[in-house]
Design brief:
- Keywords: Receptor, Repeat.
- InterPro entries: RCC1-like_dom, RCC1/BLIP-II, Reg_chr_condens, Ub_ligase/GEF_domain.
- Helices cover 0% and strands 46% of the residues.
- With 256 residues, the chain is an all-beta fold.
- The protein has two domains: 99 residues, no CATH class; 131 residues, no CATH class.
- It has a four-stranded antiparallel beta sheet, with no helix packed on it.
- The protein is globular.
- The relative contact order is 0.09.
Length: 256
C-alpha cells in the first residue's frame, strides 16, 4: 500500500509520488475519508491514520495519527469492510454486524442519539422491530448520513435527513437505521453516499435520491424517495459499480 508524498524537483516543480506504507500484515482493502484513511487487513483488523479531530479514527483519542494505528474492535471481532467519511466511520464484521464511531451529529452513527463515539460501537437494531435479526453485507458513509444493505438486499439509511438524502420521504433526522421503503424488493448490491445525495445499485440499474443536481435527475427540487435513473446514456448499459464524491457521481458499466 502507498501514500502520496510531496517532493520538489530541481526546477522547483512540486510532484506527488507514491511512498510505501509499512505494514506487518497484507492489506485487503482501504477507504479514504476527507482527510484520513482506514485500512482493512486480510485477517480482519482495522488500521487508521490521518486527521482525528472527531474521534473518527476510532483509537479512543481526539488527535491526529501520523502512522497507521490499530483500531480496537469490541471483543476483537474480525471485519470484512470499512467505510471512512468526513467525521465518522463504519465497519462491517464478518458476522454481518455494523459498527460505527466518530462524530454523532444528526444521528449519523445510528446509536439512537447524537453523542460521539471514540471507539467502534455496535449498532443495535433492537429499537427497529423489523431489523432486530438483520445481518448486513455492505456499509457506506456520507458527510452526515450513513447507509447499509442487509442480507435480503434491502437498503437502510439514517442520519441527517435534510435534502431528502435518507430517502424516507421527509427531511427530518433519523437516529437509528430505517429501511428505505421505496427500495424494498429491489435486491440492492451497492450503496454510495455524497454530501446531499444517495445512490443504490440493483440489477445493473441506478436508483438515487437527495438534493440539488447530484442525483442525476436534472431537477431542482429535493427527491425524498428513491427513483430509478432513467437516462438515455445509461439505457444500453448494465452498471456494475457506483461511487459518490461529495458533489458528483461515477458509474462503471459491464463493458468497462
Amino acid at each position: 500500500m502507498f501514500n502520496l508524498s510531496l517532493v520538489t524537483t530541481r526546477s522547483g516543480v512540486c510532484l506527488h509520488i507514491p511512498v510505501r506504507v509499512k505494514f506487518g500484515s497484507r492489506i485487503a482493502s482501504i477507504s479514504c475519508g476527507t482527510d484520513y484513511t482506514l485500512a482493512l487487513t486480510e485477517d480482519g483488523s482495522i488500521y487508521a491514520w490521518g486527521v482525528g479531530s472527531y474521534g473518527n479514527l476510532g483509537t479512543g483519542l481526539i488527535c491526529d495519527q501520523y502512522e497507521p494505528a490499530l483500531v480496537q474492535m469490541p471483543e476483537n471481532v474480525p471485519c470484512r469492510q470499512v467505510a471512512a467519511g468526513t467525521k465518522h466511520s463504519m465497519a462491517l464484521s464478518t458476522q454481518g454486524d455494523m459498527f460505527s464511531w466518530g462524530h454523532g451529529g444528526h444521528g449519523r452513527l445510528g446509536h439512537g442519539a447524537c453523542d460521539a463515539a471514540m471507539r467502534p460501537t455496535k449498532i443495535s437494531l433492537s429499537e427497529v422491530a423489523e431489523g432486530s435479526e438483520a445481518k448486513f453485507k455492505f456499509v457506506a458513509v456520507g458527510e452526515a448520513h450513513s447507509a447499509s444493505i442487509d442480507s435480503l438486499g434491502q437498503v437502510w439509511c439514517w442520519g441527517a435527513g435534510s435534502f431528502g438524502r435518507c430517502g424516507h420521504g421527509e427531511e427530518t433526522d433519523f437516529l437509528v437505521p430505517q429501511v428505505v421503503a421505496s427500495m424494498i424488493g429491489k435486491s440492492c448490491s451497492r450503496v454510495a453516499l455524497g454530501v446531499c445525495h444517495s445512490l443504490a445499485l440493483t440489477r445493473g440499474r441506478i436508483w438515487s435520491w437527495g438534493g440539488f443536481l447530484y442525483t442525476g435527475h436534472c431537477e431542482d427540487d429535493d427527491i425524498e424517495t428513491a427513483r430509478e435513473l432513467d437516462d438515455e446514456e445509461l439505457k444500453n448499459h448494465s452498471i456494475v459499480e457506483i461511487a459518490a464524491g461529495r458533489f458528483h457521481t461515477l458509474a462503471l458499466s459491464s463493458t468497462g
